[in-house]
Structure formats: C-alpha cells, structure tokens
C-alpha cells in the first residue's frame, strides 16, 4: 500500500528550480532513503511533504488523500524533523515534549515513555540549550514519535554527530523501522542509506535520477578478485572454467565475472586442479559506486561515503 | 485548537526569562514614572496630591506610551525567535495549522497590552492608594472618560503590537525586526510632519502611529466642550474606528504575508 506518492513535484524560487518534476512512491513498511549532494532539493521536497513549502507544481498523495483539506488531516499521521532538531532552547527536554504533545492533542502521560525510549530521562529537566547535538537529535526523534505516527520523515538526522552519536541515531531508526513504521530518511551519507534503507531515491540539482530498492541499485554481474602464488597457472585454469567471463589481469590479481555467481563451485574446481586461492573477493558494486556513476563528479564532491 | 495554540503561547511566554526581564524593566520604569509625582506630593505638605481619585488620570495615561513600546519589544521577541530557532516550522510539522499558529501569535497582542496595563494599574494604583487623603480636594472626571481612556490606551497598544507583528513576520529575525519596529515609530512621525507640510493633514493624522499617539491622549476622552479638549481635532468615535481599522488591516496583511511565505 502506498503511504506517500509524489508526482511531478516542482518548486521554483524565482529563476532557481529547486525541485524539478520529482516522482516517487513510498510503500508501507519501507525505509526510504533520500540521497543527494548538498543543494540537490532533498529538504525542499521534504518541506513540501510536510506542508511548510508550497509546491509550484505537482501532486502529493498522503495516506490516499490528495485534496488540500484531506492532506492537512493526513499530516497528523506523520511526524519528523527538518534540517536540524528544532527545539525551544529555554525549555527543558520534558517541556519541549509537553508542547509537542499538546499540539498532537496527547496528554502528558506520553512524555515520559518517549523520553525513556531515547534514553533522555535523566536529562529531561535540563533546558535543551545545554544539550549536546546528539541529545537534541534524540529528543527530536522522541518528539516525532509522539502519537505513534505511521510515517516518520527525518531530514539529515545524523548531521554533525560524531560516529557514536550517528550509531545511536541509526539504531533508533532501525528500531522504529522494525516496529513496522514507514520511514523516509534524507541524507547525503551513502553508508547511512546502505545500512538503514530498503529503498532509495537519488536526487541531483532538483532532479530525481533513480528510485529503486537498494538491493536493485547494488545488483549487477558479480565481479570476483582472485589471487594465488602462481598467477599464470591460475589464469590458465580460470580461463577454462565455463562460467568465467570478462577476465582481466590487474595489479597482481585476476578479475572475472561469474555467470553462475557461484564462487564455491569455482573454488572446488580450482582445488581439484591443485590450485589453492590466497584471496577470493566478491566485488559487488556498492551504493557509493552506483551513486557516483549516477551523479557524476559533482555529487562525489558533496556526498560522503562512510564516516 | 486555536485555544491550544494560545495556551502554548502563554506557556512559552511564562517560561522565557527575557519576557520576565522585560516586564521587570517595565515595572521599574513605571515605578519611576509614578514615583516622581508621588514623591513630590509627599514632600509638598498639602500643595501637591497623588491619590485617588485625582491620580486616576495620571494612572490611565502617564505610562501607556512606555507600555506600548514594551509591547512592541515583547511581540517581536515572541514571534521572531520562532523563526530563528525554526520552531515555527516544527510546530506546523507537529500538527498545528498555519492559521492556528498565526492566531496564537495574534492573541499575544491583547495579552501583552492587558498585562502591561495591569502592571501600570498595580503600581500606579498602589502609590495612589498610599497617597490618598480625604482632606484633599477631589477632581473627578466622568466614569465614561476613565473607561474610554483605558480602552483607548489598550487599542493604541494593540495598534502598535499589530505593527510589531507585521514587521516580525516580514523580517523574521529578532535584531533587525526590533530595529525596524523602533525606526518605524520615528519614520511615521517624520512622514506625518512631511505630509502636513504638503497640506495633507487629513492623511497625516491617519498614519498608524499618529492614530496610536492620539489614542493615548487622556484629554481626548473628556466630555465634548471641555476646555482641555478644545485643542484636539479627533472625534472619539472616529478615532476608535481608525484604531480598530488599523489593527484589522495590519493583522490581515500580517496573515497574508505569513500564509504566502514558506517556512
């Protein structure tokens, strides 16, 4: 079932085309990654989904509703953050959540469990001005989770965090995803998408380049790297192996595609010939390689592979 | 839901230290404003008097100009920071509609006006109560004058608060908005002088701050024909109508600006 459907979504600021005819669908239970270099239109697109940016053109369907009034009603079933944790610095963590709970028409009894879920109970009565960025991100996640929304949208939730903080946020998002919620995650961190997301949309300069399952994007004929003491003997043996294709020798190793994608059979075949491999590596294309191929050098400059 | 939005605004206002500091500063200024005549009356041994009912005129009008300026500052502080911290957009993401958010902020205008006026009453009234003496000759204006003067002062503060809201929603940054709101007070006065120089008195007197200033003049509400009122050229009804119209126009323009712009 489609939770969110975006069709031909466009946003123009004067001469600048921030989002250009973007179309994608998010199905129930997916963790949908929104990937793109800085300035690719991720935040603007999410702003339009949240209803805080007015689209210049296009169509948006949320939980099957598309009229402005029904959309406003449907938006009560989604939660999230945009760009950064937007908190009142002079209020405590608990007061910030009480405020969000009041907006969502929930009573204060929802606040403490939410604080506990993000491990902020101990800091709940401190003003958020003194929170670290990681704590702010966690509190923003708790606020987004209040009311148990069906769709959660997070824009750059690990931005500015240290590796430990990133890991904490990732685990929280994975926990949410396992509980059956649909999650849209915007980021320019490729590793984050590869670790968390089931599906991904890649944007560049406001245009959607590709939208597919992560497994689909990283699929392709598997290339294997083989090394042994005697490269010449190995070359002769592998070249006679029926499934071996597109062989090449580079940097003291042999690279070959395997039509049957079965490296175990190749190992058995080579062992039968008395050749024992020092290395057999599957060089499946990574999301990073796919992303760089799609976005070109501009994207490579902005996107970060793995923290 | 508008009530919820307003309740949240009151909650935020109550929790902000800068709001309390502004109210404290206003209290101190109000003590100074009323302390002068009170102290002079205490030392004059019967020649001066700061007590009820004579002091009512002073209480109703002396600190209202200052209250109006503090109202502008408080409105700008309560609105612009929402854009600085991007909490305005988060409120919408969390489920508040844009009209509800605006209504919550607009309702701060009467709240700020009434609370500041209550401070004036509390401080001025306390000093006047202390200074009240039965032996003093009493000067009493009609009750309608007192009521109209209080309503006029509140309307003036609402008018200035609406200007502040418009500027805050247009500028969206605390420092520049405060500067713009205060500069506008001067700009309005200069524009009025220029318009009068061009023999456009009718236009000049209807400028927002000119209407605001006229609404704060206590003598404006004295009965027709009284000598103190003879130099004033406003009819009370027209003045009130002008004030209400400015509040309505400024709120409508603020609403349109807020609704049209992305957060």
What labels describe this entry?
heterodimer, A: 307 residues, alpha/beta, six-stranded mixed β-sheet, four-stranded antiparallel β-sheet, 11 helices, 28% strand, B: 263 residues, mainly alpha, 76% helix
Would you mind describing this structure in some detail?
The complex is a heterodimer of chains A (307) and B (263). Chain A is α/β, with parallel strands linked by helices and 307 residues long. In chain A, 36% of the residues lie in helices and 28% in strands. Chain A contains eleven helices and 13 strands. Chain A has helices at residues 42-50, 68-74, 93-103, 111-117, 133-145, 163-178, 190-196, 214-217, 231-239, 263-272, 287-302; strands at 2-13, 16-27, 31-35, 57-62, 78-81, 151-155, 182-187, 199-204, 207-213, 223-227, 244-250, 253-258, 279-282. Chain A has a six-stranded mixed sheet with strand order 5-6-7-3-8-9, sandwiched between helices. In chain A, strands 11-12-10-13 form a four-stranded antiparallel sheet, with helices on one face. Chain A has a three-stranded antiparallel sheet with strand order 2-1-4, covered by helices on one side. In chain A, helix 3 crosses helix 4 (111-117) and helix 5 (133-145) runs parallel beside helix 6 (163-178). The longest helix of chain A has 16 residues, at 163-178. Chain A is elongated, with a radius of gyration of 24 Å. By secondary structure, chain B is mostly helical. The mean pLDDT of chain B is 93. Chain A binds chain B through residues 47, 50-54, 72, 75-76, 79-84, 86-91, 95, 99-100, 102-105, 143, and chain B through 4, 7-8, 11-12, 15-17, 85-87, 89-97, 262-263.
């Amino acid at each position: 079932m489609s939770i969110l459907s975006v069709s031909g979504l466009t946003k123009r600021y004067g001469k600048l085309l921030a989002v250009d005819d973007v179309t994608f669908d998010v199905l129930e239970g997916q963790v949908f990654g929104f990937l793109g270099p800085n300035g690719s239109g991720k935040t603007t697109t999410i702003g339009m989904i949240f209803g805080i940016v007015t689209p210049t053109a296009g169509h948006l369907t949320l939980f099957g509703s598309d009229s402005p009034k029904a959309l406003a009603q449907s938006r009560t079933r989604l939660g999230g953050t945009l760009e950064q944790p937007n908190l009142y610095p002079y209020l405590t963590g608990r007061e910030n959540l009480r405020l969000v709970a009041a907006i969502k028409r929930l009573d204060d009894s929802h606040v403490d469990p939410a604080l506990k879920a993000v491990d902020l109970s101990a800091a709940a009565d401190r003003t958020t001005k003194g929170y670290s960025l990681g704590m702010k991100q966690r509190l923003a996640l708790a606020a987004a989770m209040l009311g148990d929304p069906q769709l959660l949208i997070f824009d750059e939730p690990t931005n500015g965090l240290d590796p430990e903080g990133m890991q904490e946020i990732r685990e929280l998002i994975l926990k949410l995803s396992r509980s059956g919620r649909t999650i849209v995650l915007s980021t320019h961190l490729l590793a984050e998408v590869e670790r968390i997301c089931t599906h991904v949309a890649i944007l560049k300069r406001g245009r959607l380049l590709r939208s597919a399952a992560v497994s689909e994007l990283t699929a392709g004929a598997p290339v294997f790297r083989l090394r042994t003491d005697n490269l010449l003997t190995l070359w002769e043996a592998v070249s006679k192996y029926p499934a071996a294709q597109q062989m090449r020798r580079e940097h003291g190793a042999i690279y070959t595609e395997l039509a049957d994608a079965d490296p175990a059979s190749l190992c058995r075949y080579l062992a039968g010939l008395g050749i024992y491999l020092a290395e057999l590596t599957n060089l499946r294309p990574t999301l990073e390689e796919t992303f760089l191929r799609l976005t070109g050098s501009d994207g490579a400059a902005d996107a970060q592979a793995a923290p | 839901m508008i009530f919820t939005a307003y309740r949240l605004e009151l909650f935020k206002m109550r929790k902000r230290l800068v709001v309390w500091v502004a109210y404290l500063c206003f209290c101190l200024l109000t003590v100074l404003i009323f302390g002068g005549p009170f102290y002079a009356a205490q030392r004059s041994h019967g020649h001066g008097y700061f007590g009820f009912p004579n002091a009512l005129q002073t209480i109703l009008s002396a600190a209202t100009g200052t209250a109006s300026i503090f109202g502008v500052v408080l409105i700008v502080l309560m609105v612009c920071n929402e854009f600085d911290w991007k909490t305005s957009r988060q409120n919408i993401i969390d489920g508040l509609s844009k009209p509800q958010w605006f209504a919550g902020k607009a309702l701060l205008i009467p709240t700020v006006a009434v609370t500041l006026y209550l401070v004036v009453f509390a401080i001025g009234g306390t000093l006047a109560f202390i200074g009240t003496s039965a032996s003093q000759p009493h000067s009493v204006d009609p009750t309608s004058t007192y009521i109209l003067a209080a309503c006029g002062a509140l309307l003036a503060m609402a008018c200035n608060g609406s200007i502040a809201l418009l500027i805050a929603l247009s500028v969206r940054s605390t420092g520049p908005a405060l500067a713009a709101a205060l500069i506008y007070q001067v700009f309005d006065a200069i524009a009025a002088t220029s318009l009068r120089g061009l023999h456009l008195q009718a236009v000049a007197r209807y400028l927002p701050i000119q209407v605001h200033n006229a609404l704060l003049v206590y003598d404006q509400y004295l009965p027709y024909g009284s000598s103190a009122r003879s130099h004033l050229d406003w009819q009370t009804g027209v003045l009130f109508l002008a004030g209400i119209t400015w509040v309505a126009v400024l709120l409508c323009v603020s609403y349109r600006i807020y609704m049209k712009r992305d957060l």
